[in-house]
Amino acid sequence: MAALRVFSLNCHGVNDGIIKYLEDASDMFDIILLQETWLSDKSSVQLEKIPSGLSVVHCSVLETILQSDCMQGRSFGGTAVMHKNNVWYWTVSCKC
Q1: Whole-angstrom Cα distance, residue 55 to residue 36?
Q2: Structural domains of the chain, count
């Protein structure tokens, strides 16, 4: 049985540079954990651009803030788990 390779990254916002970095990392790791993505549910589709047979589960507090029309300051929050399709047979999403 091969070792499970896990990578964790505090993104401080997802941009083109982070996407490129994740594209490179996706070949080396089975599971990628992301923090501080600063993505809404709508903009989290950026993470699906990364190839290599990865599935993405994303959760963001931004949805609640955007719906309240009370956004102040910079974006914050957001986590994602990216995993190779051959790692997990099922996932369960829970509301953050």
Answers
A1: 19
A2: 1
Q: Which residues pair with 59 in a beta bridge?
A: 79
Round to whole Å and give the CA distance between 75 and 52: 29
Domain that holds residue 59: 6-84
Residues 69-85 pLDDT 10s: 655 655 578 899 998 88
Q: What stretches in the chain show pLDDT beneath 50?
A: none
Torsion of CA 86, 88, 93, 94, to 10 degrees: -150
90 inside domain:
no
CATH number of the domain at 69, please: 3.30.950
